[in-house]
Amino acid sequence: MSTTTSTDQVLRAHAEQAYADELAALAAVDDRPRPPQWKLSPWAVSTYLLGGTLKDGTAISAKYLGNRRLIEIAIASLATDRALLLLGVPGTAKSWVSEHLAAAISGNSTLVVQGTAGTPEEAIRYGWNYARLLAEGPSEAALVPGPVMRAMADGGLVRVEELTRIPADVQDSLITILSEKTLPIPELDTEVQARRGFNLIATANNRDKGVNDLSSALRRRFTTVVLPLPDSLDQEIEIVQTRVASLGASLELPADLAELSEIRRVVTVMRELRSGQTADGRTTIKSPSSTLSTAEAISVMTSGLSLATHFGEGRVGAEEVAAGLVGAVVKDPIQDTVIWQEYLETVVRNRPEWADLYRACRDLETAN
Ligand SMILES: Nc1ncnc2c1ncn2[C@@H]1O[C@H](COP(=O)(O)OP(=O)(O)OP(=O)(O)O)[C@@H](O)[C@H]1O
Ligand SMILES: [Mg+2]
């Protein structure tokens, strides 16, 4: 069985596949010094993430919209031997930035450890092919290298998602790797020494409850970059618009049905509920338990787009976003319903230009 599928068949291409043209165009004009094993110079990596126009006229799309300096600090850290920790509340593009950094720097964003409460040490180090281990005893052929070991051997980047969910003792196995840059294999009386170019990008959510905080020994080995929520309404609208357009294209949904005015409205609702006050600062409202991040606004608009395309009258309007909005806001059926009702009655209802949204949300309740 072949496990490779052509890129236009996969549901979601890896960054290095989806943006192969941009990466090639950058490599072609990039004459600045590259750190060992890097596919691009730090300048080209930052242009890939932040967007720009190359001297040959090629347009590079912005992957990350926000503070340029944060991205530069992240890249500069990866060019040293310090690992990078991207920290932030959910939906602030930590995983997204990590994937694009790995794609631009090593041309491979697929070496990933997904951190969970059950992540075992083998997922970070190596495991065994047990049939072989039993038949032949420990040997290099029976060893199954994990993503970290592969990145060390290749001199590339490895990503660790949700680092703080990983149990503390397993997290600590990263300390030797990050400080000594070796991974001992006592069973074979050998070790893997990291090749130049090896580094690690971890992401962690600073909102998650019950997480395993990083030990100070481990934290010291990282440069921490905190990715913030978007500063302004306009910036957040731009992020949602860009992402909805590109998700729409990959799902073959016509993104131009999602008009800017509707995106503005969805983002406004999210920001108001998140910040606990209306955009004009006049009314205080309660915030629901859910995190209403940019990512939620993106999915409300994308599902609205699907509704409009398949069942609607050709544009994303109040009816198409209402269900998605309620679903995003009401995560706790009791508390959040009360908060949402209050917002609906005190804010949405009092905005004459939002009458259609008020009606669509009320209609949903009576339909239930
Ligand atoms: N500033 C931004 N620039 C570009 N895209 C953004 C920005 N903020 C959020 N997004 C978009 O939001 C979506 C969610 O991002 P992502 O999954 O990376 O969040 P996360 O920080 O890893 O969240 P979690 O903590 O839940 O894992 C992505 O599609 C990303 O494109
Ligand atoms: Mg993430």
From TrEMBL:
UniProt cross-references to InterPro entries, sorted A to Z: ATPase_dyneun-rel_AAA (IPR011704), CbbQ/NirQ/NorQ/GpvN (IPR050764), P-loop_NTPase (IPR027417)
Domain of life where this protein originates: Bacteria
SUPFAM superfamilies on file: P-loop containing nucleoside triphosphate hydrolases
Protein's name according to its UniProt entry: ATPase
An example molecular function term from Gene Ontology annotations: ATP hydrolysis activity
Domain ATPase dynein-related AAA, first and last residues per copy: 84-222
Pfam entry (one): AAA_5
